[in-house]
Amino acid sequence: MTNPLLKIEQLSVELGGNLILDKVSLSVEQGEIVAVVGASGSGKSTLLHAIAGFTSIGKGSVIIGGKSLSSLSEAELCRFRRTGFGLMTQDFHLLKKLSARRNVAVPQLMVGSKTDEALAHADELLSELGLKEHLETKSENLSRGQRQRVAFARSISTARPFLILDEPTSSLDHETSILLLKLVSKLGNNGTGVLLVTHDDSTIDIADRVYTLDGGKLSLQGDRK
Amino acid sequence: MRLGTLISWLSSGYRSDIIKATIGAMVAITLTVSMAALGESARTAITEQLLGGGDSLRVRPPSLSVGPIELTGSLLPDRALNETAIEAINSIEGVHDVIPELWTRFPVSFRGEIANSNMVSDGAMLGIPYKAVEDDVSPEEWSWEPGDVIPVLAPRSLMVAYNGGFAAANGMPRLREQAVHGISFTIIGGRNSQGRLGERRRVQAQVVGLTSYGDALAAIVPIEVVQWFDQELDVDNPGQATSLIARIEPGIPPEDVQQMIQENGWGAEPLGGVAKELSVALKSVEFGVQVGGGILAFAALMLLVQFYGVLLRERNEDLRIMRSMGESKWSLGSALCFEIAAATVLAVCIGSILGLGFANLGADFATTIISERLGVDLVLSPTLPIAFLSLMTIAAPLFVVLGALPTIRRSLNGSLLTR
Question: Burial, B63: exposed, middle or buried (Cβ in 10 Å; 0-12, 13-18, 19+)?
């Protein structure tokens, strides 16, 4: 068995004196799609933020690519965020004054791609997601569903071993959701480890394993393997 | 991410706000530079054109005093400077050259017409060689022989005094510099309102120009004119110099030369009293303008810092996103510092150029006003010292970046995307 891309052991996170995550353990292998479901306020997003290094880890450990997140320096954390994983947050967090294609090109530029190549690749991705007509539209002028697709395109714009998706289909119509999930499955088949957080049952269909997060505690709901 | 792309993309959508802030700073710098350049050029012009350039001393014959009473000319039998004395003064260290002067030692009055008003005035003539006024008049205009019309140079300080007060007080029109040329009048030697000396001599004269020479309120004429009057009126020691101007070597303190001359028994006093005082006063005004302008520029730069701070807070979300995607604080900070520094450099450079342009436009206006009010055609040439521009180009962005640094740091130390 290969080393897991992500290994979380006994992770506990407290925010404002409240225990949000309670001894959570989880692993994601290469090419595996793992889904975490839970009600609002169950700690799903906190789990993702802890994995991305946005939230300080209280107890336990998060190991990505064989390295403990808490042992990384500031510079290593920056590099890790650039090259270690792709992230799509629930609120999309696009650069609102930039066009859709520029938003998608930013991660590529951060890893050294040339501007024209990055923009060409961004155009391809956005066209695939049905946004060909909106390449130059500022993200602040896009609809919520369009912004979600741009955010998704941005998260997969560079080849990274691990992908974190927070409610990836929450604002999409049925057809676009299917299209996006097919792309996620394709990435999984190509070896990318995917952790997706959702409350949408249709989304978990593509997952290899499904966990439930409730009151900060994680439990395995199903394992297709 | 490459710095250029980062700056360009990070500022995308905020450029119009950055440009507005830059224009604000630019306007203030334009005003400051134009005021400073105009003030400096006015001071330089007045110093050069009224004071007549470099430092000079007027040297008089050995003086005799009893206690506080100066008895020069009253008791000394010989008031003139002879050849030996002139040579001795010329050889004193620090003296570049000497110009012998011959003041009238007999009553003089002028009779003529200015602006259709008959005028009779007591006065004096100062005879000088051509080299003393070679910048103001041609050799042909300055040559004189008995029987010719006497060429006269009017002192600029007299012109200023006439236009600045005398004309208004006597209901007479102000005269412009050009209008003075060609004024004809009669010089009467040997007689004035106080009395007469021997036979009087009447000679026709004509103004051929203005001069800053010698800080003298007298009709400046060729030295041969006074020598001729001396002989005609039978003055003692006719034609001998009564004083001289010692022009000082550049870089030599005039006080040192003055002291040396006085130690040799000569009376010596610096020239340009009024013009010098005016120059000092203008220097004070200019200093005030520079301080005021400096405060204005400082306020403008502070405003730029404040405005940039507000703009930065609007971009906090973008910075958080960029950091969450892996862009380092260092590169983001560099981009932000470069952005505001570039805006400041732009404001300084364009502001300085515009300021200089406005100063030149203002110079024409000021020249016209001075010419109309004082009748003196001052040539104002506002310039900006390269040192000042270089200092501003370096200091202003540094100041602005340092001022904005705490805000930039706060923005970059904010939380990452935790919601």
Answer: middle
Q: Are A162 and A131 in contact (CB under 8 A)?
A: no
Q: Which among B318, B326, B328 has CB closest to A95?
A: B318
| Inter-residue contact B338 to B6 (CB < 8 Å) | no
CB A110 within 8 A of CB B10: no
Mutation for B interface: A44, A92, A93, most B CBs within 10 A: A93
Mark the ranges of chain B whose per-residue pLDDT is less than 50: 72-77, 79, 419
d(CA A129, CA A206): 18
Q: How far apart are CA A52 and CA B373, in angstroms?
A: 77
DSSP β-bridge partners for residue B122:
B109
Give residue B84's pLDDT. Answer: 85
Torsion (CA) A111, A116, A119, A125 in degrees, nearest 10: -90
Other Cβ atoms less than 10 A from the Cβ of A222: the count is 12
CB atoms within 10 A of CB B6: 22
Question: How many angstroms separate the CA atoms of B206 and B213, rounded?
Answer: 18
pLDDT in tens, A58-114: 789 999 878 888 888 888 888 888 998 999 998 899 999 999 999 999 999 999 999
Are B209 and B153 within 8 A, CB to CB?
yes
pLDDT of residue B173: 78
Alpha-carbon distance of B190 to B109, in angstroms, equals: 8
B184-192 sheet: strands from edge to edge: B117-123, B108-114, B184-192, B195-211, B150-155, B219-222, B125-128, B95-103, B243-248, B56-60, B267-270
Size of interface A-B (CB pairs under 8 A): 72
DSSP B220-244: EEEHHHHHHHHHHTT-SSTT-BSEE
Sign of CA dihedral A143, A144, A145, A146: positive
Query: Residues, chain B, total?
Result: 419
Contact B13 A98 (CB under 8 A): yes
Helices B386-412, B316-324: crossing angle, 10 deg rounding: 70
Give contacts of B 281-340 with A, CB under 8 A.
Answer: 317-318, 320-329
A191-212 exposure pattern, b = at least 16 Cβ within 10 A, e = fewer = ebbbbbbbebeebbeebbbbbb
pLDDT of residue B286: 67
Distance CA(B273)–CA(B277), nearest Å, equals: 6
Instruction: Tell me how close the Cα of B5 comes to any Cα of chain A, in angstroms.
Output: 8
Residue of chain B with shortest Cα separation from A103: B9
Residues 111-140 of A with CB under 8 A from B: 115, 138
Nearest to A8 by CA among A54, A50, A55: A50
Reported as type and span, the H/E element at residue A15 is strand A6-15
B121: number of CA atoms within 13 Å, CB side? Answer: 13
- Please give the backbone phi and psi of residue A40, each rounded to the nearest 5 degrees, phi first: -60, 135
**Shortest CA gap B39–chain A (Å):** 46
